[in-house]
């Protein structure tokens, strides 16, 4: 089976954090197999981090020049002249004390500026976010789209055009589910209405599918507080229930009559969740609470002289599906132990029926998050 992939697209905003990107990536990680993040802001932040990882002085000088240009500091030409002077200086023989002193002065000046820039970057970028994204990239669960552009072209139309071309590419893919933030959604809606964006029916359905998934998963208890690592852990624990959950999302997406450029789309999704989904989640919760096998067993056996035997029976109930146990092994536990095994099997059958519900993944993900933060 091929990977189930989502592409997160976000609108570039003034803030320097990646909170919105992280939130949407978490939704993608919980629901699909791999996420592609298309974000000018993420591209820029990773570009800055790559600059700060330079170790050679000349590389750092050129990086500082690029950053000053991207930061609209008006120092590009001045720094370029200093770099050229420094390159000329180090190309000569260092037998003149004044040249040696000048070289050290330039190096010290750049070192101070470099350290200040690195400290500033640490102050505006959440390193934990960057580390989490790096880990996802190494696990091949995340790809961050990079937009090739040199610093001199950063503020011309080519950089933005490259981003929107990548967005159009996302909307044309047949094997990917676009997950768009609010502003990109509005841009797409306007583009459709003005005839500037043509989206196939299948892509429209996948966008509705992703939008429903986003709306549901963001409503999970404490979802916004969960780290990327916790989301990965929960996904791993519940992986076997995910196929049925995706099937449910397809079913509910088919019930949404509004198209992606209709103003009523989000209202219809909210109504669908209230009418169709929440009652099922409540029913699953009641079934789980009603399947109180251990409480029932404890009540029946609490005063029984066979309590110890019942405990043996419970343990045997856990392994009888795998091993054949002789009569002699359980002879001491027959009166209560057999009863315990029967109750255990009944509980397992009920639990299996509950877990087959297509929304069990959604229910259990909410329980996992709730348990971690309450």
Could you characterize the architecture of this molecule?
With 374 residues, this protein is mainly alpha-helical. The protein folds into two domains: 1-199, no CATH class; 290-373, no CATH class. The protein is 67% helix and 5% strand. A four-stranded parallel sheet has the order 3-2-1-4, with helices on both faces. α1 (19-31) links the parallel β1 and β2 (34-38). α1 (19-31) packs parallel to α10 (228-237) and α14 (307-319) crosses α16. The longest helix has 28 residues, at 97-124. Mean pLDDT is 77; it is low at 292-338.
Task: Briefly summarize what is shown.
The protein has 374 residues and is mainly alpha-helical.
